Amino acid sequence: MFLSVFEMFKVGIGPSSSHTMGPMVAAARFLDMMRASPFEFAGVKASLHGSLAFTGIGHATDRATILGLAGFVPESYDNEKAEAVMAAMNDTHTLTPDDLPPLRFDPKTDLIFDYDTQLTGHANGMILMATDAQGDTILSQVFYSIGGGFVMTEEELAAGKATDEGDPVPYPFKSAAEMLEMCKASGKTIAAMKRSNEESRGGSENLKKGSARLWQVMNDCINRGLVIDGILPGGLNVKRRAKGIHDALLAERGLNQSAPHTINDWMSVYAMAVNEENAAGGQVVTAPTNGAAGVLPATLRYYLDHVPGASESHIEDFLLTAAAIGGLVKYNASISGAEAGCQAEVGSAAAMSAAALCAVMGGSPEQVENAAEIALEHHLGMTCDPVRGLVQVPCIERNGLGAIKAVSAASLALRGDGTHLVPLDACIETMRQTGEDMSAKYKETSLGGLAVNVPNC
Known about the structure:
Blueprint: H1 5-8, E1 11-13, H2 17-36, E2 43-50, H3 51-54, H4 61-69, H5 79-92, E3 94-95, E4 103-104, H6 107-110, E5 111-114, E6 124-131, E7 137-147, E8 150-153, H7 154-158, H8 176-186, H9 190-202, H10 204-225, H11 242-255, H12 262-279, E9 283-285, H13 295-306, H14 315-332, H15 337-340, H16 346-360, H17 365-377, H18 395-415, H19 424-437, H20 450-453
Parallel strand pairs: 2-5
Antiparallel strand pairs: 1-9, 2-6, 3-4, 6-7, 7-8
């Protein structure tokens, strides 16, 4: 099994990888299907189902779908151009993607939030349709946004787990047990094996440049979030807090009067800065999702800024180790909140971050696996219950606590010798089973939990 670091970590836009990035990617794929078709098209339509319908407004799923059908993709998203396209569409009820004729699209009638029809493949389902001059559907495709910006068609999902059709890689582990056995047999670290896999597909220069860009986007996101204040969009009137907390922390540092536990506030503020940017629709990196995008950058920033002896030369190893663990979780369970609750998002992010921090601090492969297990174990059962469907409450603070748990898990693992009772594979399987058993009310539908017990205005 091979999942590239550049699939696990994707540059995109907020507020949701499943509900914003996924639909935009699906729409772009549908445009490619239209371009390859012999039919003459005159319009497009879309229907959103399941979690995409229930929390679609708060996650800007409607806007993302429209922009995707206009030709936008997350990687190169330009907000100024997007605003112009949305304004023109509202005036003309027409979309004009490249290499296709002008397409009729009225958001009031051609974009449907279907709260009653649940598509069978996944909680995040959507149907995209293309019509002829008479308005009849002549091409349609069901897509599922399966978490972290990953999208599959109905046929791809029915065929089973996404298969890797590329050339064989040197270390194709599918479980943590296989990963540790390969480490023992090869004498390599997890990051070194992952590097060999990546370089066998894309080359060393691509890995070097790509990893540097990922961290630059992550770090830029932190830095933006630390200097911007105001109210987040969406109607909850949630105040940005990262700037105020960061300013206070800097002032306290100057006085040299900080309590030891203040380090937790530093970890939290880095994560909150990212997730406030995500909530505002800014540029983020899925890690492994947008809703959990703050945990890993916060843990890496903590390492670089606060750990004695930390080195930027370890950033690539950090990302490679995290991607290895994230790949195991995605392959054997889920990283989708709509599928398994927030344990699959912030829990996975914390496991990835704990493993990565443990690795760059000198942990053995066994200690790294232990760190991931500790972090994931103590997120088991966590629900996804965003108030008003917005990726704000409890998501922003939850990322801060996820980073704190990640650092604590890495530290505990480093205090041991790598032996422990619960294997990471067992913890991942437990997360999968827990997600299956969890009521749909607690899986990104905003039909239960905090979403119904906190006033929405």
